[in-house]
Design goal:
- The longest helix has 21 residues.
- The protein has a domain of about 130 residues: Tetracycline Repressor, domain 2 (Orthogonal Bundle), CATH 1.10.357.
- The mean pLDDT is about 95.
- It is built from 10 helices and no strands.
- By secondary structure, it is mostly helical.
- This is TetR/AcrR family transcriptional regulator.
- Keywords: DNA-binding.
- One of its GO terms (molecular function) is DNA binding.
């Protein structure tokens, strides 16, 4: 009978993968990930059948973590502006609090090693946000920009905001508010 897998070892592998993918991209070797986790490389493959499976699971874990952070205390009954500002604040705060995770998810998002099935599953965590954007567009609150454009602008402004906050941490609240104002004025009617 096979021994049950250890959740702690799986978590250690994923934590190491975050760190190394953030630093080295998806080319980070599994031997380095296993070594950083304090495990033999063969043990890594007990938990993940292949490097691609590891990267896809890491992508899904990071998307789920980001989605949970953004949607925590989400004001579903608030105005479109309030809801979008909540999403913005959650996105920026998560990126600030988890810089390696933010770098890793950006690396994974552009990797051809992430399957379409994983991309769809990862997007499911943001279904409520997509629905809010569509509703806001149909009600005339938002300009008629494609959701992909709004997402790209959100990513770019988040990067700029996080870069400024890293330089001047005492101005975190200021830059977060200023970034949202720029975003909102660019997408709202």
């Amino acid at each position: 009978m096979a021994r049950p897998l250890s959740e702690a070892k799986r978590d250690a592998i994923l934590a190491s993968a975050i760190k190394l993918v953030a630093a080295q991209g998806t080319g980070a070797p599994t031997s380095g990930i296993a070594r950083d986790a304090g495990l033999a490389e063969g043990t890594l493959f007990t938990y993940f059948a292949s490097k691609d499976e590891l990267l896809n699971q890491l992508y899904l874990e990071l998307k789920a973590d980001l989605g949970a952070a953004i949607l925590k205390a989400y004001p579903a009954e608030g105005s479109a502006r309030d809801r979008f500002e909540h999403v913005w604040n959650g996105f920026v705060d998560w990126g600030f609090d988890h810089p390696a995770s933010r770098k890793a998810i950006r690396q994974l998002a552009v990797s051809d090693r992430i399957t379409e099935a994983s991309r769809r599953q990862g997007s499911a965590a943001f279904g409520e946000i997509s629905a809010m954007l569509e509703q806001s567009r149909s009600e005339g609150v938002l300009k008629d920009h494609p959701l992909s454009f709004i997402g790209a602008v959100l990513e770019a402004l988040t990067d700029a905001t996080l870069e400024l906050v890293a330089r001047e941490p005492a101005k975190r609240a200021h830059y977060k508010k200023a970034g949202f104002d720029v975003l909102w004025h660019g997408i709202a009617n």
